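FAQ: What does a ligand-bound record look like?

Like this one, built around PRP:
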Amino acid sequence: MTTLTLAVPSKGRLEELTRDWFASRGLTITRPGGARSYLGAVEGAPDITVRFFPASEIARELIRGTIDLGVTGLDLIHETSEQGPQSVLAAGELDFGHADVVVAVPDAWIDVTHMHDLADVASDFRSRHGRWMRIATKYVTITRQHFARAGIAEYRIVESLGATEAAPASGVADIVVDITSTGSTLAANGLRVLEDGVMLKSQACLFAARAAVTENKRDAFIALFEQIGLHGRIPS
Ligand SMILES: Nc1ncnc2c1ncn2[C@@H]1O[C@H](COP(=O)(O)OP(=O)(O)OP(=O)(O)O)[C@@H](O)[C@H]1O
Ligand SMILES: O=P(O)(O)OC[C@H]1O[C@H](OP(=O)(O)OP(=O)(O)O)[C@H](O)[C@@H]1O
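The answer part, i.e. the structure of the complex:
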């Protein structure tokens, strides 16, 4: 029997929604070893092995090809590989986990409404303040690519793994690149998204590893995709 390895978010906001999504398609994901076990199963489908990983590790392992299928945010695929979605096979958008990766500046920067204004600020920053403009983010790849496209090179990235929106007020950085859905965290921290500051629109997606769709796994993919309503969506 050919086995498919499916990775499911182990924590965070995507965990429950992913399990709900599969359940609504008749696949009940179980965690026989309890909440702290990282191995799972699908009821009635012994040919599927479930592994629980943080969403960011699912992106990494899909790109490496150590798992066959996984659910993660599109933002994390873009962030984990310079090649973005080309580094994996997209199987379906799951219509939850909608959020945008954005550039946001302090409300007080009233003259800065677009990326071209930010380009002016960045090029003057050093002469005015004696240092580069600093961007707090965990989205280093996405920021570099987007700022290069906008012609902005004069900045420094301050890597931030949590509470990124606090960085400008605490003096750790000047602006942020972060993910947002309701916008309330940015607003609560006195930050405003530039009018052309949406860098990426993300949602949770099902991806397959490029190396996974082999001849001997093809039937297993077809059976699973039939069951979850992604008929004809076998990536190739
Ligand atoms: N505010 C949000 N609204 C909707 N989706 C979000 C939001 N924040 C994050 N996401 C999506 O969920 C994914 C995982 O975010 P989450 O914060 O749950 O990550 P995690 O890996 O569990 O946590 P950590 O970053 O602390 O390890 C993000 O990459 C993004 O696709
Ligand atoms: O636009 P909003 O609805 O305010 O959401 C934005 C927040 O959501 C995410 O954090 P999360 O809540 O996942 O926690 P984290 O900061 O620990 O990653 C993200 O990092 C933002 O901080």
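Follow-up question: can I read anything off the structure? Yes, for example: The chain has a mean pLDDT of 94.
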